[in-house]
Amino acid sequence: MTLPENLSRRAMFVKLGILFNGIIAALLAIPILRYVLSPVARARKAGYETWLPLGSLDQFPAGQTRLGTFRNPDVQPWDGKTAYSDCWVRRIDEHTFQVFAINCMHLGCPVRWFPQSGLFMCPCHGGVYYEDGARASGPPERGLFEYAYKIEEGKLYIKAGELPTPVSPSKPSALVDISGKQPCA
Amino acid sequence: MRLIRQIGEWLDGRLQLAATLRETAEHPVPSETASWFYVFGSAALVVFMMQIITGILLAVIYVPSAGEAWNSLQTLNHSIALGWYIRALHGWGSNFMVAIVLIHMVQVFLFGAFKYPRELTWIVGIFLLLLTLGMAFSGQVLRFDQDAFWGIGIGASIASRVPIVGPSVVNLLLGGPIIAGSTLSRFFALHVFVIPGMLIAFIGLHLLMVLKLGINEWPMPGRIIRKSTYIKEYHELTKKDGIPFVPGAVYKDIFFAGCVLLTLAIVAAYFGPYGPSGRPDPTIIQTAPRPDYFFLWLYALLSLLPPQMETPVLLIGPVIAILFLLLLPFLFGEGEKSWRRRPIALLTILLVAVVLGTFTDLAGHAPWSPVMDAWSGDPIPQQFLQNRSALERQGALIFQLKQCHNCHALGDEGGKRGPALDNVALLLTPDQLIRQVIQGGGNMPAYGKNLSPPETTALVAFLKTLHPAGQPPARDASRTIAAEPVANPPTSTDR
Fold first, then answer.
1. Over the stretch B93-142, which tens digit does the pLDDT of each residue have?
2. Which residue of A66, A107, A122 is the best one to mutate when testing the B interface, meaning the one whose CB has the most B CBs within 10 A?
3. Reported CATH class of domain B26-365
4. How many interchain CB pairs under 8 A, A with B?
5. Which CATH superfamily is domain B374-483 in?
6. pTM
7. With an 8 Å Cβ cutoff, are B181 and A80 in contact?
8. Which CA distances in Å does B66 have to A107, A173, B70, B292?
């Protein structure tokens, strides 16, 4: 049988030792967490804040909807083709455009444009959108995501760089019909 | 021989493991548990070991970079000797593992093995199931092809719907604002380090508990489990009726594991590796991503749920299901073990199996997806065009040109998103057809803006011919009455 005071002294050292390690662990947790959370806490420059060129205006004839390709702003050298994204560019008239995300607002599959019927159709679960991006039918609960655009020196630019998801706020002026009602035909 | 014995003794003098190992191997198990029903757990373990081996072999070549992963898979498939076979073993091994884990779980559930005192074994088992599914999904991502690329997009779209933190979760999942190199790198870390590490740790716990608590005895109908008496009864059973695990029961495990491995080897050789499908190039949009086999039911569910129910079901459903599985041993920890006396348990399993099986089967032909090239690829069957007027045939052309065929089938050709139109003239009068085409509704887009009046007339003229011979098309009875005083009532409702 050891002396009780001796025991408590050792027990205290054990506790102090654990406390010491706990403090170090807490300190180390700060850089580790910061590292793990870096995709969330990154500088906001990526998001929808950068103007990205889609090419010259004459690639997009008025009255038509064409595929545009842009390079994302926040990329790594090893991203390969995934650094690029597509979008649907609808040129309404000389100066009015609508630029839609390729992603269906149901679960993100790439929608395809059918000029004959004037519809975007999604191959996954059958979401359909009208030419102005409004929801026509199927499981999506909203219209296509719309990028902000500007025209400068004969070139079309959009603000992009983030994967559009069903909750991404679309451009305020976009003709988005979240109620799912059909516009008057 | 003497030398081997000496080396063995020398080693055991230092390791001191032989006695423990012998005791573990020869621990008594109830003699009825030396059964072919008790082999699935060990088979899952053997397939997992196989996955570790083939996984390491693949990691020797695979490049976890968004730009190069797909190319490295092509190299594995075509340039490295039998690289394709190792990929096939790993891909099919994944299917085998999920299947065996599910069978093991069903067996354990039906045999009441989750009941006292094996609650924690069951709970650890639930985590093992989730980790296995996590391996299956992250493995699909590492096969960085079109399906993988858009598959992560689907995962991100689901994650984005989590209230408040959704967008942050998406960024965390993708490792950045878009699906790119960082996404693949973090799924690589998950698939190769994090989840396997957790699997190994949890398998260790699972096995330890199986050894410490003893294998579940064969459930006899009428043998009621009570916390107060169970452990004593179990020990009496193993004492009275026990046989040593090795060799009494283990030979069945060994044979079954061998059969599983042999089947895996044959299946992998016969069917070959999975993909990779097209290049993960986001600018190639001619793609219809499909999940791997064990997630097909989810794909079906996401298509068939009413839109407004989707988010709640997606976010709350899994939580409830997992909570229920975790709480199961506490809710039903005592009582009957035999499935013969647990009709609700048996019916639950049947119901879940039928539901998952139906969904998986449906996802195989995905009737909810429009057939994107039906308008240009699937001609209208002849019988719908014979003896038709010029206007009606023009309508058939409009039907193709406006992509109606992508969603509507004729003679079983074309999409099944909307109803088949073979008999549509029996169901809708010409006026109703015009209204439906122009205004849409009932999950059909409105075509008013994209059909000129002559096109609409032609299309409806064609649709009016779609009825079986001998059955008159639907007509508006009120018209006939209204037209009665007229000498020659209109025979047709053409306008």
1. 999 999 999 999 999 999 999 999 999 999 999 999 999 999 999 999 99
2. A107
3. mainly alpha
4. 212
5. Cytochrome c-like domain (1.10.760.10)
6. 0.88
7. yes
8. 22, 35, 8, 20
